[in-house]
Amino acid sequence: MVVPTAAAEVFPRKPAPPGAKIYFTNVVDGATVPSRFTYHFAADNIEVAPANEPRPNSGHYHIIIDSPLPPPDIPIPNDANHLHFGHGQTKGEVIFPAGDHTLQLLMGDEHHRR
User: Fold this and answer.
1) Cβ atoms within 10 Å, residue 16
2) In this structure, how many other beta carbons lie within 10 angstroms of the beta carbon of residue 103?
3) Nearest by Cα to 85 from 37, 51, 45, 46
4) Spatial separation of the C-alpha atoms in residues 24 and 37, rounded to whole Å
5) Domain-embedded: residue 43
6) Does residue 100 fall inside a structural domain?
7) pLDDT at 1 exceeding the cut of 50
8) What range does the domain containing 77 cover?
9) Does some domain include residue 70?
10) Binning pLDDT at 50, 70 and 90, where does residue 13 land?
11) Residue 45: inside a domain, yes or no?
């Protein structure tokens, strides 16, 4: 039996619209980038909107750095490994120490859930 979290009970998840896709536009898997780099994001078939402006078929970007994906029924954390772009930004600068890193781009709703 699965017991939903309080957030899931208050704010039911909204499915992404059909064909929704988000992606980095200026970097590909396995790329080498400088330690300070500005990532650019794009979306197809979903609107990018600030977190405080709930709209149908919309969301805002989050970058997950060197961490697993958070569960879908709770808000995406907001810390050094979970960057929020809740103003509807379509780019963000990230500064990394030297080494290999894993980035994942997520679209979150107005409640920061994926």
Assistant:
1) 16
2) 18
3) 51
4) 12
5) yes
6) yes
7) no
8) 21-108
9) yes
10) confident
11) yes
Alpha carbons 88 and 95: distance in angstroms, whole number: 20
Q: Please give the structure tokens belonging to residue 51.
A: 């977190």
∠ at Cα 91 (11, 67), nearest 5°? 60
Structure tokens at 79: 């810390």
Residue of 3 and 45 predicted with greater confidence: 45
Looking at the 3D structure of the chain, how many domains does it have?
A: 1
Please give the average per-residue pLDDT across 62-83, as a whole number.
92
19-72: pLDDT as tens digits: 999 999 999 999 999 999 999 999 999 999 999 888 889 999 999 999 999 888
What are the φ/ψ torsions at residue 8 (nearest 5 degrees)? -65, -35
Amino acid (one-letter) located at 80: A
**List of E strands, 1-114:** 21-24, 36-44, 47-48, 58-65, 82-85, 91-95, 103-108
10-27 mean pLDDT: 86
Mean pLDDT of 64-87: 92
